[in-house]
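> run fold GDP-mannose pyrophosphatase
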Amino acid sequence: MAIKTISSREVYRNPWTRVREDVIERANGKRGIYGVVDKDPACIVIPLEVGAEGEFVYLIEQFRYTVGARHWELPQGGWELAEVVPEELARGELREETGLTAERMTLLSTLQIAYGVMNQRQYVFLAEGLTIGKADPDAEESDLVVKRVSVVEFEAMILEGTIVDNCSVAAWGLYRLWRERRELEL
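> ok
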């Protein structure tokens, strides 16, 4: 490895996040400190509805404390558990945040969120065959707003900077590549 860990100590912990400070040694022998945020696995779900009217996705709007503003994004989250069954997590988050259930869940890939500072996997799922039900948000998600938008409107929101969540943009880009490959194979 280019960087060797000399020592590690946890400097902060809450139910959602752990922060550690590592003393490291680089390949050139110089030592330094690296701060790492450890978080349990998460998922992001692309709830896609395709019908005679066109293609639609369901978005969530919520207040994000770290940036002090409300933003639109795809449903996503975690359960504060180190070990999860990715599809169960995705189905649970989708139902919890939107009330939607899906006939089919397709794992598109697993990404790392902000790996320059954070150690968190995010499973990217495509949800199809949607059924609308009642949402059951966590206490921290009491302000969620769910909105169904056309794919054209969703992509415009990305290009206009209305959607700034990098995980939502990355998940959508991944889906578009997956779909393009699939169409070429058919």
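The radius of gyration is 19 Å.
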